[in-house]
Amino acid sequence: MWRRLCGLLFVFAASTAALWLLSARLSAGQARRPLRFPSDLEELRELAEALRDYERQHRGAALALFCAAYLYKQSFAIPGSSLLNVLAGALFGPWTGLVLCSALTSVGATLCYLLSGTFGKHFIISYFPDRVALLQRKVLHRIISSVCRQEPFCHRSPLWMPFSPGTRCSNCWRWLWRL
Q1: The pTM is what?
Q2: Using CA atoms, how far apart are residues 68 and 142, in angstroms rounded to an integer?
Q3: pLDDT of 175 higher than 90
Q4: Residue 36 — pLDDT band, cuts 50, 70, 90?
């Protein structure tokens, strides 16, 4: 269990170092100043003004830094991504910013899920076994009651629907008790 915790700390430290190295190469306008995540709208305005000139000259580097910072915040569930959404609109335009933030949010949430499954699952199960068992019972009850409500209305022809809700329940049952 401690190896998994050390692994998570290593991934966090490596990601932080990579983001720092990427941002250290970025010079904000003429003056080199350290970049940091904005915490309010005033800091966001200052950062957007500083990055606009750089973004016009080095669009690829600015895009890479923005993507890395956004994925960092999403992957480790650090609050403040909404300010980065506004920054994306200011730097890349509203439509490009929307598409970019939507894609990065999906990828970041997937990375967060994978990190929690890889490093946090056994830690939570070992320290909170009663709560995990209670949650498993609640989820299983909802799945079974959902299947019972849908089963009479399901057409069982393989051409119409290859998997019945009962199959879905069986697959979920296997997952719930595989801990």
Answers
A1: 0.68
A2: 38
A3: no
A4: confident
